[in-house]
Design brief:
Shape: flat
Structural class: mainly alpha
Largest sheet: none
Number of strands: 0
Helix content: over 70%
Distance between the termini: 43 Å
Radius of gyration: 20 Å
Length: 63
């Protein structure tokens, strides 16, 4: 358990550090990543909302 905790925290800290170094000089890249993440959330939200509105064809009978 301690090894997995250490590995996860090292991965998180290293990815945050490298992300900060990489994105520090590339403002356009930061905007591109933000737009990509925003589009991913929008598409996922639209799909889930349409699934919510669509009625089920085969409903499970309640007992």
């Amino acid at each position: 358990m301690a090894l997995s905790t250490f590995t996860w925290s090292a991965y998180t800290a290293l990815s945050g550090y490298l992300g900060g170094v990489f994105f520090q000089e590339n403002t356009l890249l930061v905007v591109a990543v933000a737009v990509g993440v925003g589009l991913a959330f929008a598409v996922t939200g639209a799909v889930e909302f349409s699934r919510y509105l669509r009625p089920r064809k085969h409903s499970i009978a309640s007992e």
